[in-house]
Specification:
Elements (H helix, E strand, L loop, with lengths): L12 E7 L2 H8 L8 E2 L6 E2 L2 E9 L5 H5 L8 E3 L1 H4 L2 H8 L5 E9 L4 E5 L10 E9 L4 E5 L2 E3 L5 E5 L5 E5 L5 E9 L2 H7 L2
């Protein structure tokens, strides 16, 4: 999976040149109701409300909690019915030439905090990358990676090495929603990460 490019030093955060119009992305969220989101299952990692909605998941996942979990050992992935209902977000997924594994919308409610933690299987050196595309955000969202703030605007595309310590504090009065794509770190993606 990891190729010769993986030997290049990749910073812990990279804003990719890909940018998407945030208005159609946000419009895709309008059809969602509060009950459509699944509460994040690692409750010790957050305070408040942190939830997700799977657009692509492991082919073996049947329960909503299984569908929002990006299982490192999974090898087959399928789109969920939600993806067909969200054309703008689906177009973002299609913009990536790398194999896309799981895709979720991740929602952090106002006043909620994701405590500092690390996801050990999310490092390009291990052949996988997590990409964030903010859909809704506000100036009061404080995302920290290795203790340093990362400010991500709606529609931007970011690689974040989340095997490193990271946290999020939504101090604003609106939800923060990101499209989160887990994908294979192949030559196409690595070339964009290397600049």
């Amino acid at each position: 999976m990891a190729t010769a490019h993986a030997q290049l030093p990749i910073p812990d955060r990279v804003r990719l040149a890909m940018r998407f119009d945030p208005a159609p992305l946000a419009a895709d969220l309008v059809a969602l109701e509060r009950g459509d989101w699944t509460e994040h299952f690692v409750k010790q990692n957050y305070d408040g409300e942190w939830s997700a909605l799977a657009l692509r998941a492991s082919a073996e996942a049947r329960h909503p909690i299984q569908m929002i979990y990006s299982a490192p050992g999974a090898t087959e992935f399928v789109d969920t019915p939600w993806r067909a209902r969200m054309p703008a977000l689906s177009a973002v997924i299609d913009a990536f030439a790398s194999p896309v594994r799981s895709v979720r919308l991740m929602r952090l409610a106002p006043g909620s905090v994701i405590k500092q933690h690390s996801d050990p299987d999310l490092d390009v050196a291990d052949g996988f990358a997590r990409i964030h595309v903010p859909v809704l955000t506000n100036d009061q969202v404080d995302f920290r990676l290795n203790g340093t703030r990362v400010t991500m605007a709606a529609g931007e595309t970011w690689y974040l090495r989340l095997a490193d310590p990271h946290s999020v504090d939504n101090r604003g009065d609106t939800a923060r929603v990101h499209l989160v794509l887990d994908m294979v770190a192949d030559d196409w993606l690595l070339a964009r990460l290397a600049g």
